[in-house]
Amino acid sequence: MRALTVSAHGGVEQLQVVTDLPIPALGSPASARVRMHAVSLNHLDLFVLRGLPGATLQPGWVVCADGAGIVDAIGESVTALSVGDRVMINPGISDRICDFCVAGEQSLCEHFQLLGEHLPGTAAEYVVVPAANLRVVPPGVSWEHAAAFSLATLTAWRLVVTRARLQPGETMLIWGIGGGVAIAALQIAKRIGARVWVTSSSDAKLARARDLGADETFNHRTGDVVAEVRKRNGKRGVHVVLDDVGEATWERSLRMLGRGGRLVTCGATTGPMVQLDARKLFWHQWTIMGSTMGNDRELDAIVHALGEGALLPPIDAVFTLDDARAAYERLSAGDQFGKIVLRLRDD
Hints:
The protein is of the alpha/beta class and 347 residues long. It contains 11 helices and 18 strands. α4 (150-163) crosses α5 and α7 runs parallel beside α8 (250-256). It is globular and about 60 Å long.
C-alpha cells in the first residue's frame, strides 16, 4: 500500500511516498481497519519530522495523526461500527484498563500514545486502530473536514470547556490565531457565549478571525498586546488565556490575567522552559493548567456539535499525498489559516 513516511529526522526532504508497505491486519477483536480518504497536518507532525526529545523513528515511519475514511474490516467484538461506515479517527490511543481509563479519563492513560508520534500514523491507504477511537462522520461533512476535525477540536474542547471551564460572558484571550487548536477554541468559546480576544502577527488572519466571531483582535508584532488588553477592559485583565506558545509569550500571558484568572496550555512551540513569580500566583489567585487531547465523553460532545453544523474547521489548503512536502512547507511557514489536508483518494 501507499503511505507517506520518514526514515530519519530532518526537513521535508526526509518525507517519502512509498508503495510497498503491507496492508495491516486487524490484530485484535476490538480493532477496525479504515481505508483512508484524507488526513490533515498538525504542528505535531512538524515536531515529529524535526525530532522530539527521546523519540526515535523506525525506517519507513508512517506520519500524521488525524484522518478519515471508510471502515474496511472490523474485529469480532466490534458492535458499534459496520463495514462501509464513514469514520474519523481520534489519534489518542489509551490502554482502556488503567485506573484513569476505567474512570473515563482516557487522555490521562498511563500508557497514552499518539498516532504518528508514538505509533505509526494515518497517512496510508489502510490504518488499523481500536474501534473505540473511531466515530461516524455526520451526514454532509466532507472528507476534508472530517480529516481535519478530531485532534484540534478535541484538544480545544478539553482546554476551553473541561479545564478552563469558560463561562458565558467571560473573556478569553487566544494567542496566535490561525492554527487548528486556536480556531477551534475560538469557535467553542463563542458557542459558550464568551467574549474572545485573539492575537496574530498577520492583519489578514485577524480579519479572518473577526469573520469567525472574534470580539477584539491584536497584532502582537506591531503593538503592545498587554497594554492594549488592559486598556480595553479597564486594566482588569482577562478571565482565561490560552497560551500554547510557551517561552515567547508566557510572561505576557500572566500579565494579562485578571484576579482569579486561569491560564491553560497544550503546547510550547517556542520552548518549554518558563518562569513564574510565585508571589503573583498566590496573591492574584491564578490557576495554571495543562491539557492534552480529551476523553471519550468529550469526543462524543464535539462530534455531536459537528452534527448540528457547529465547529466545522476552516480548510486552508488541500494537497495530494505526492505534494506532501509542499503541504509541510506551508505549515512550517505559518501562513495558513485553518487546516492543511492531504487527500489520499478522489472517490
